[in-house]
Amino acid sequence: MNGVALRILLGDRAKYIGLIFGIAFSTMLMSNQISIFAGLMLRTAGQILDAREADIWVMDPRVEYVDEIEPMTDMQLGRVRGVDGVDWAVPFFKGLTVAHTCDGMLQQIILLASMTRP
Predict the structure, then answer these.
(1) 108 found inside a domain
(2) Which of 2, 12, 57, 110 has the fewest CB atoms in 10 Å of its CB?
(3) Per-residue model confidence as pLDDT tens digits over 4-22
(4) Could you give the number of structural domains in the chain?
């Protein structure tokens, strides 16, 4: 049975080369999609991963995405600071602003800021 299968596979050279090319191409496409997914996930989480001093992030319950700007109130921040084991808690700011470049042009930027550890 295996001999018949090999003869059918290797009997037509064009079909065999097409089959090998198709498998190699589909494998390349699958690995490419994995790398695109990994790149998108790293870029999406980049803002959080860059703030390495924070062990845990506390956000408003209505926030679904990192790009949604929903600041916590001072009362909510005080509640977080009052939890046992919390050494420090500071607000994180994210907003759009305009900055002057070195050549005098205006450029819209994303401003990310947080207070440093007390």
Answers:
(1) yes
(2) 2
(3) 877 877 788 888 888 889 9
(4) 2
